[in-house]
Amino acid sequence: MKSTHVMIGLASLVGALVLAAPASALTAYSPTGHLNVRSGPGFQYQVVGQMQAKVPAEITGCIADYSWCSVATGGVTGWASAPYLVTDAGGKPTNLQVSGAQLGIPVVVEPVVPAPEVLTYVTQQAVEPVLVNGEVMVGAVLPTAVPVYQVPASPYVYAYVNGQRVLVEPTARRIVYVVR
What CATH number labels 23-99? Predict the structure, then answer.
């Protein structure tokens, strides 16, 4: 089986890392009680842990409308509902959903969680693998030399890069999900 070798631009990888890094160490807490930490930004995602009442958690970013924030607390990382989070940043207690933009909390891309049938389709297709320099990760941009393939009933295309199948946003060619 012949492999093609192309290079992911260093600038795209560095840009993805900069976008993923938190701007500063901002903390928030649940003022009224224990708050579920979920695997994604929404009540439909699985609970992976809990924030204890009035115990600060690091906020690493929020989705664009500041309704859900990525948190790290007690060895658990996940997502917490921002209307239930309060921070003392700025000198007075304030709700994260209301003040997230003013506090400079970075906006993070909402994670893509593909439907099981999309994953099944992508993993069952026989396509030529492509080798690229650099790490295959969410946020990296694929060069135009990397072939992408349509996924029925999905807004994404897929590629097979460095032994990893990835879902890709077709316009920007940005990896949105790595199939593991």
Answer: 2.30.30.40
Residues in CB range of 17: below 8 A, 6 or more apart? 139
Residue 54 to residue 14: CA distance in whole angstroms: 36
**15-73 pLDDT, tens digit each:** 333 333 334 568 999 988 899 998 778 887 778 899 999 999 999 888 888 999 988 88
Provide the 8-state DSSP code for 67.
S
User: What's the pLDDT at 127?
Assistant: 94
On the 0-12 / 13-18 / 19+ scale of CB atoms within 10 A, 111 is middle
Nearest to 157 by CA among 145, 170, 144: 170
Percent of the chain with pLDDT over 90: 37
In this structure, how many other beta carbons lie within 10 angstroms of the beta carbon of residue 108? 19
Q: Copy the structure tokens of residue 54.
A: 């009035």
Q: Domain coordinates of the chain in residue numbers?
A: 4-15+112-178, 23-99
Neighbours of 60 (CB within 10 A): 19
Average confidence (pLDDT) over 151-179:
90
